[in-house]
Amino acid sequence: QVQLVESGGGLVQAGGSLRLSCAASGSILRINTMGWYRQAPGKQRDLIAAITGGSTNYADSVKGRFTISRDNAKNTVYLQMNSLKPEDTAVYYCNVRGIYYSTYGASDFGSWGQGTQVTVSS
């Protein structure tokens, strides 16, 4: 299986910045897509940024403020969050999809990080 470990959440004032990291480990053959989701209390989990190869996509709510990037050598995805707003407060989850070596050979995987809390105070 493939495990993800997130880091970088915390409390920040409005207008501030945070950088989230998510490192994947395990018998990874190839990573296809890496993404960041967030879930606010009482709301569904939404995709906010994704990167596939060199192509990136962002939700309108974060476009121009957040930047997703990846380090293929480290199997790590980052989310640089600038100009944070109170409405960005949520638990942030990374998601990684690709192919790994399983008992049965090469198999697809999709894994979630444990989630990290981001709180933006006004």
Keywords for this structure?
single chain; about 120 residues; mainly beta; seven-stranded mixed beta sheet; four-stranded antiparallel beta sheet
Description:
The protein is an all-beta fold. The chain is built from no helices and eleven strands. Strands 2, 4, 5, 6, 9, 10 and 11 form a seven-stranded mixed β-sheet that branches. A four-stranded antiparallel β-sheet has the order 1-3-8-7, with no helix packed on it. β4 and β5 form a beta hairpin. The model has no long low-confidence stretch (mean pLDDT 97).
Detail the topology: elements first, then pairings.
Layout: E1 2-7, E2 10-13, E3 18-26, E4 28-39, E5 46-52, E6 55-58, E7 66-71, E8 76-81, E9 90-102, E10 105-112, E11 116-121
Quick recap:
By secondary structure, this protein is mostly beta strands.
The radius of gyration over CA amounts to 15 Å
Helix proportion range: under 10%
**Could you give the order of the helices and strands?**
EEEEEEEEEEE
Count the E strands: 11
How far apart are the termini? 40 Å
Largest sheet: 7 strands, mixed
Helix count, DSSP H or I runs of 4 or more residues: 0
Alpha-beta classification: mainly beta
The low-confidence runs, each spanning 5 or more residues with pLDDT under 50, are none
The 3D shape can be described as: elongated
Q: Strand percentage, roughly?
A: over 45%
- Mean pLDDT across all residues, rounded? 97
